[in-house]
Amino acid sequence: TTGKTITCKAAVCWEAKKPFVIEDVEVEAPKAGEVRVKILASGVCHTDAYTHGGLDPEGIFPVIFGHEGGGIVESVGEGVTSVKVGDHVIPLYIPECGKCKFCTSGKTNLCSVIRISQGKGLMPDGTSRFKCKGQTIYHFMGTSTFSEYTVLPEISVAVIRQDAPLEKVCLLGCGITTGYGAVLNTAKVEEGSTVAVFGLGAVGLAAILGCVEAKAKRIIGIDINEDKFEKAKEFGCTEFINPTKLEKPVQQYLVDVTDGGVDFSFECIGNVDVMRAALECCHKGWGVSTIIGVAPAGKEISTRPFQLVTGRVWKGSAFGGCKGKSQLPGIVDKYMNKSLKVDEFITHQFELKDINEAFHALHEGKTIRSIINF
Ligand code: NAD
Ligand code: AHE
Ligand code: ZN
Predict the structure, then answer these.
(1) Which spans of this chain does the record mark as coiled coil (predicted)?
(2) Which of 101, 283, 292, 311 suits a disulfide with 287, CB 3.0-4.6 Å?
């Protein structure tokens, strides 16, 4: 490679739970098969907060978080063919190599060629491209979008149309695609269905959009923060439940008011007790519950096996089952054609220097999505 190291600003997290520090970070040139991207904007997803909070068994520090970004390719390494300088891209935390057992299976979006190094906070060659104060800084989810520049494998970027506003469609790099895709690709919600969506943050709201597109008849939104109901209603949610105000467990309540249970449910929180409720509120014989939320290290799900014996199905979904390189451009088109909401998810905007405020607002339950602008 011929490129030079760039020194730029990035939000470095030196230790779990400690505030981010805006540092001058050295970002090495992309090596073979890699690209360096100038990030213009990045959303803040609950998963960033989860790992920052020390809840992720794969968490590694010091690190640069962020996985919901949008940017422009600044330089490319040797042998890169699918991306060129100037391309507008969305980083992918689930890459698409198109060749591995997973990519060719036709059954999953979980491309696994670089999963091991990515989980260790490193590029596929086993090294990091980030340094600060002489120390190695780790990558996060293979994306590290809370930096003015980041380096990614070429299989980990989706090239999108140049007329799409990066400061908005960056949200398609995680939350929106995840909820929407879980409904349409993973669960395959059917017309006329009754659906329960647990958690009405960005992922839950996006699931509601998927349910509306699938022509679900009843879309029941569940959240303990009633401030989340208004937007959910605008998005197409037809009924609301605050489980803290019920006199019985939410699953029993749902079974009672839906003539035996819902056809589909989605857990968009990351709470294993809610995951159980989401499974148990499903209709006997056919109800399908899809887990999207990410639960803390050490937590496990449980239910009576009888729940499954009697025909309920437990599923899970990552990035909405979307194969990023080939399918994300089409999702961007849907937004550009006004058949998928994105702008409505954005409740807050921050400059990179104020990133700690964005996390504070997330923890207070005030945001749907904050955008960090570079
Ligand atoms: P968020 O914080 O914006 O939304 C979570 C919502 O759940 C909030 O509205 C909160 O009030 C509500 N909630 C919390 N506890 C609750 C309870 N006990 N009962 C009902 N509602 C409750 O988060 P988000 O960014 O929308 O992400 C949601 C979850 O999805 C997180 O766990 C995140 O890590 C995960 N996630 C997974 C994927 C994936 O690919 N599987 C992708 C993105 C996010
Ligand atoms: N590292 C965690 C799991 C984290 C996790 O499940 N990540 C989701 C994406 S969350 C996006 O906001 C995912 O895609 N997982 C698939 C994968 O291969 O990581 C743990 O528990 O170890
Ligand atoms: Zn995310």
Answers:
(1) none
(2) 283
Q: SS3 of 194, please?
A: strand
The structure's pTM equals: 0.98
Q: Position 50: which residue type?
A: Y
How many angstroms does the Cα of residue 178 sit away from the middle of ligand 3?
Answer: 8
Atom of ligand 2 nearest to the CA of 94: 14
Residues 229, 312 share a domain: yes
Annotation marks residue 47 as catalytic: yes
State whether 54 and 144 are in the same domain.
yes
**243-262 exposure pattern, b = at least 16 Cβ within 10 A, e = fewer:** beeeeeebbebbbeebeebb
Q: What is the pLDDT along the chain (374 residues), one digit of tens a residue?
A: 468 999 999 999 999 999 999 999 999 999 999 999 999 999 999 999 999 999 999 999 999 999 999 999 999 999 999 999 999 999 999 999 999 999 999 999 999 999 999 999 999 999 999 999 999 999 999 999 999 999 999 999 999 999 999 999 999 999 999 999 999 999 999 999 999 999 999 999 999 999 999 999 999 999 999 999 999 999 999 999 999 999 999 999 999 999 999 999 999 999 999 999 999 999 999 999 999 999 999 999 999 999 999 999 999 999 999 999 999 999 999 999 999 999 999 999 999 999 999 999 999 999 999 999 99
Domain count, the chain: 2
Whether the CB of 143 sits within 6 Å of ligand 2: no
323 assigned to some structural domain: no
Residue 94 CB less than 6 A away from ligand 2: yes
Nearest residue CA, atom 14 of ligand 2? 318
Tell me, yes or no, whether 333 lies in a domain. no
| 48 assigned to some structural domain | yes
Token pair recorded at residue 29 = 């040139």
Any ligand 1 atom below 6 A from CB of 48: no
Q: Which residues contact 354 (CB under 8 A, 6 or more apart)?
A: none
Range of the domain at 282: 179-317
The domain that contains 274 carries what CATH number? 3.40.50.720
* Residue of 36, 96, 111, 132 with catalytic role: 111
Q: Catalytic: 303?
A: no
